[in-house]
Amino acid sequence: MIITIGRQLGSGGRDIGKKLSEKLGIAYYDKELIAIAAKESGLSEKLFEEADEHTRKGLPAGLLNTRFPLFVDSMIGGGWFSNDTFFKIQSDVIRNLAETKSCIFIGRCADYILRERKDLFRIFLSANESDRIRKIMETKNVPAEKARDILENTDKKRAAYYNYYTNKTWGSIGGYDVCLNTSLFGIDGTVELIREMVQKIDL
Q1: Least enclosed by CB within 10 Å: which of 43, 53, 87, 184?
Q2: H-helix or E-strand spanning residue 192
Q3: Backbone phi, psi, residue 186, to 5°
Q4: How many Cβ atoms from other residues are within 10 Å of residue 178's Cβ?
Q5: Residue 10 and residue 85 in contact, taking contact as beta carbons nearer than 8 Å
Q6: What are the strands of the beta sheet with 2-7, ordered from one edge?
Q7: What is the DSSP letter of 40?
Q8: Alpha helix (H) ranges present in 69-181?
Q9: Contact, 67 vs 73, CB < 8 A?
């Protein structure tokens, strides 16, 4: 059983993913993927964090301090280490994890990376803007106007990242099996709804 969750910032995707993993008894991966990819590649975890869900390119290869120079040399062009390489490494990690166990993946184009699998259930979560702004204000301790800026900038970056690497449209209903507005159901209600859906489909 492989579940991927795309999400707008402030829609509760992380909380829903964690609670769903507990309900279903399966593994959950969000930022954990960064640590795994860094460990397996021998690259700095900080570099993966900087590249995470961004399309910005052009990290000097000399700054990597990798433990695997032959591996890096085979993936670097012109002395620069692009975000495309980080995406490839992380994609391999996602595929390998999906081969070994049931998983929930948050973001990072996992729905596209695993698109050939027959046991894949793709979800996209949205929420009303007012609820999203309120959640960002609470979690980041910022005023409403700053929360709105964070919301808009983060969604733009996620959309650019997803669209660039998949040639699809982030959040477009045709790219997912289910799209849910978490403002209608709440965090726990959304978790229970997804759990019921998973039980009714053959994964």
Answers
A1: 184
A2: helix 182-200
A3: 75, 170
A4: 14
A5: no
A6: 27-29, 103-106, 2-7, 120-126, 178-181
A7: H
A8: 69-73, 83-100, 110-113, 129-140, 144-166
A9: no
